[in-house]
Amino acid sequence: MTLIIGGEAQGKRTYAESLFTGEYTAADCGECPSEDVFSAELIVDYHLMIKRIADAESFTREMCERNPTAIVTMNEVGSGIIPMEKEERKYRETAGRCGCIIAENAEEVIRMFSGIPMKIKQYEGSTPEPKKV
């Protein structure tokens, strides 16, 4: 599994799509049936699925078990001003916990910033990218 995180409109989906060489199945979590994440090769905007699922943490664990090779994009929603509404604070907490579950199960975690991918977790069997001096 690969997790691609970052703020809104930072190029997560474009980068994720560039990782495929041919056709692939995608689940857009803003509108797809929840079951689609169990089989899609690309899962887009997983933070939106978290808002729609009653037990998002259990659902996320199941998604990781059933679809271990997926590429998942997810907005970082915990930064900025703390919302006054209790439900929004609860959502942020749940989104953070679900992100941790995915990151723990992922071979790679990539953070996108201004369209630039930065690997923050890398599969141990791969060769690290050389540092530019």
Supply the helix-strand structural class: alpha/beta
* Reported CATH architecture: 3-Layer(aba) Sandwich
Into how many domains do the coordinates divide?
1
Sequence of secondary-structure elements: EHEEHHEHEE
Give the helix level as a range of percent. 25-40%
CATH class division: Alpha Beta
> How is the largest sheet built, in terms of strand order?
2-3-4-1-5-6
- The CATH superfamily turns out to be P-loop containing nucleotide triphosphate hydrolases
> What composes the largest sheet?
6 strands, mixed
Shape: globular
User: Radius of gyration from the CA trace?
Assistant: 15 Å
Oligomer: single chain
Strand tally, please? 6
| Number of H- or I-type helical stretches | 4
Mean pLDDT: 92
Tell me the CATH topology: Rossmann fold
Structure description:
The protein contains four helices and six strands, in the order βαββααβαββ. The mean pLDDT is about 90. The protein is of the alpha/beta class and about 130 residues long. The chain has a single domain (about 1-120), classed as P-loop containing nucleotide triphosphate hydrolases (Rossmann fold, 3-Layer(aba) Sandwich). It has a six-stranded mixed sheet with strand order 2-3-4-1-5-6, sandwiched between helices.
Characterize this entry briefly:
The chain is 34% helix and 21% strand. With 133 residues, the chain is of the alpha/beta class. It has one domain (2-121): Rossmann fold, CATH 3.40.50.300.
